[in-house]
Structure formats: C-alpha cells, structure tokens
Amino acid sequence: MLSSRRLVPLSYVCICGFWPSDFLQVPLRSSFFRRVAPAVVERGAILNGFRTFCSSKDLSLEKCVPCKRKDLSPMTEGSANVLKPKVPEWELLNDSGVMKLCRKWKVKNFLLGLEFFKIVADLAESEGHHPDLHLVGWNNLTIEIWTHACGGLTENDFILAAKIDRLPFQSYLK
Ligand SMILES: C[C@H](O)[C@H](O)[C@H]1CNC2=NC(N)=NC(=O)C2=N1
C-alpha cells in the first residue's frame, strides 16, 4: 500500500484526509502552519515531505518505507517535537548532532533481555528498519532509533518506536 504513496519534496505541509485525494497545501513558513502544526499531525500530515499519516492517530498502524532516496534528509528538531507526543515513552537525543529516539528498560534477567531484543529484531526485520540495541550490566536495555541513511530522524523511526511500544513486554520487566 505504501508504494502508492509518493515521496514529495519538502516545501509544504500537506494536510490530508485520505491519501492522496484531498490535499490542502500549506507553506511551512506560513503563520497558519505554525498555529495548526500539532493539529495537523493529529489529523494526518506530511512532515519533511516523506509521507502522510492519513489521520492515523496511532503511528504503530503505519509501515516503514525503504530509506532508498538519495536526497533523504533528516527531519528538523521542530518536526521531531511535533511527532514526539505520539511516542511519549521515548526521549529525543542529540548524539553529537545526530538526533535519535531513545528508550530504556530494566528486565528481570539477562536471558529475558536477549528474548526482548529478539522480538524487537523480528519486528525490525519485518519493517526493514532497524534500531541500535544495547544490553549492559546484564539487565539494562537501551534502544536507540535513527535513520542511518540520512544521519538523523525520519518518520520511520517514530513508526518503529510506536510499534516497539505495543510489544507485550510487561512480564519481562523488573
Ligand atoms: C533499503 C533499506 O531501507 C535500508 O537498507 C535500511 C535498513 N534498515 C535501516 N535502519 C535504520 N535505522 N536506518 C537505515 O537507514 C536503514 N536502512
């Protein structure tokens, strides 16, 4: 389904009801955009020209797209902050200029930590988009998500984070 979604160049935020029919193109620089930005993300929008969320409130229902575009560029901190409320458990990290999503868990034991990562790995493979996995001190897990192809954040990262949040990990945690 996603292949039908064209990637459009960044110049407007497109508010859509249903892809690709009823677009209202709003110049990013307009005061209208600044006022409606959060609502735009709620209703569905193109941020950084990569895709429209077609009014899905839940990013975990979206699919990651291949990061093959030569001109793929990371989203701005402003765009990241607009999407951040959709993955409230994650924090935005600026790692030497590379913006990433980061979340930590403490699991009951080492083997559950590896099982946790295996489940995340299977999800990542199915999405074709992969997190950085850290397991330290036997039971401290950290997952960092960013788009390596452009050295920053894209919608794929927020989608993967939202999908990870829906995995059934409660029984793994301390
Ligand atoms: C074509 C495919 O999208 C790329 O090989 C994927 C694989 N998984 C990936 N994962 C992440 N996090 N960033 C990437 O740039 C990336 N590229």
Automatic annotation (TrEMBL):
Source organism, top-level taxon:
Eukaryota
Which named protein is this? Uncharacterized protein
